[in-house]
Amino acid sequence: MKQKILSIIIMVLMPSLFFAQSSEESISNKINAIFEPIVGGMSKVIFYKPFSFIGLEIPLVVLWLVLGAVFFTLYMKFVNIKGFFHAIQLVRGKYDDPDDKGEVSHFQALVTALSGTVGLGNIAGVAVAVSLGGAGATFWMILAGLLGMSSKFIECTLGVKYRNIDVDGEVSGGPMYYISKGLKLKGYTNLGKILAVIFAILCIGGSFGGGNMFQANQAFAQLSSLDSFSFLIGNGVWFGVILSLLVGVVIIGGIKSIANVTDKIVPLMVGIYVLSALIIIGLNFSQIGHAFKLIFNGAFSPDAAFGGIIGVLIVGFQRAAFSNEAGVGSASIAHSAAKTEEPVSEGIVALLEPFIDTVVVCTMTALVLIFTGFAENNQGFEGAELTSAAFEYALGGWSKIVLAFSAVLFAFSTMISWSYYGLKSWTYLFGNSKIADYSYKTIFLLFIIVGSSSTLGAVIDFSDMMILGMAFPNIFALYFFAREIKIDMVDYFKRIKNGEIKSFK
After folding, report:
1. The CATH number, out of the four listed (3.30.390.30, 1.20.1740.10, 3.10.580.10, 1.10.260.40), of the domain defined by the range 60-491
2. 191-200: string of b/e by CB count within 10 Å (b at 16+)?
3. Mind listing the pLDDT tens digit for each residue in 216-241?
């Protein structure tokens, strides 16, 4: 059956080959001619700036994410700290009951969600943040990551609590389900339906943008920058077709197939990237005090060159949100499939995502940029190419190959995870049928080709717009559920303490 489906997908994608022209620029221009007006119009809504502070306009979405993360951290009495070590116990399988309903383990749910966040946002996103906001943007990215742990806890707890499990054991969950079902129980049926539909639409757009086109775009940029792969220059369409076929092989199998791939790829790709970064940090360890001084001073510097404190804060929080997606709600879709009867336990597991993604990986990337001098002078590079140039400067040409390999793995894992997020939103809107399933996956694969043939500007704008836009309906709904989740959390830790919840290892 899977072979038949793959054959159909290949047949649909094959015509794309005929669009490959001798001039990549021509293809890119044609795509952007269609994309950019749409992006420009919609971004005015998503990135509406109603507030101004010391001459700087603050995007509403950034303020929305910051206030939400701060409130949930305080209201949940710093669950981001209190639940950290328990999260590690859960991931190790200490409380895994083999009889619990679900499709994947705590660990598989975590790495699936991480594969959607630990990606090129860490490589390209950090580079964008540091280029725009200087070293100080790193401080606000770290703070956003720590605060975002609390937002992630609530949304992933809700993902399990309000999930649907059909007769075949297939799980469907995420914001569109807990918003509609949860608000209905609270007497806000129509509001729940409207917010759930808005979220689903934005999530589908996010899956095509940040979860797809941005990844394909930056993976192509990284790979084509290598001398051994210079033949790819001007052939983004061909690269996109090949990548789409590889992604198609995995996503046909659904969440179990995705989880089986991600639980192998994510530890590998994070290990390769972190090890390379640690080598550079180790070689420059004597400067680490100076680096953190630059980060701290830059975070609170009134220097107008970087837009002052508020400007750096905005850049840091915006890029952190794009990187870890805390408050966006996407991760709860993956976590809802976890094998557990304790919703709070999965929320606790999800705490680790922003920490690993932003506090650890993004900080390492920023330190590399600072040590190599690229934080102050980007030398004309942008996105993932800037980070790649920094690694090459520090470690030599071989590191560029390693980073390019990591970038492709990052992109691949992010795409397969976001295909699942988008699919669940798609089937929420159009019904859980084979036609809906195949149609979404085919469109998703076609967007990989689009991303490989578009300029960074159009792709990243569309990505930010859709993914960050998901935060509006999601966080709005989270306020309704905060008291309910707090009660569940207190009860959960009480039962852990008195031994009512048993360990199995």
Report:
1. 1.20.1740.10
2. bbeebbbbbb
3. 877 777 777 766 666 666 666 777 78
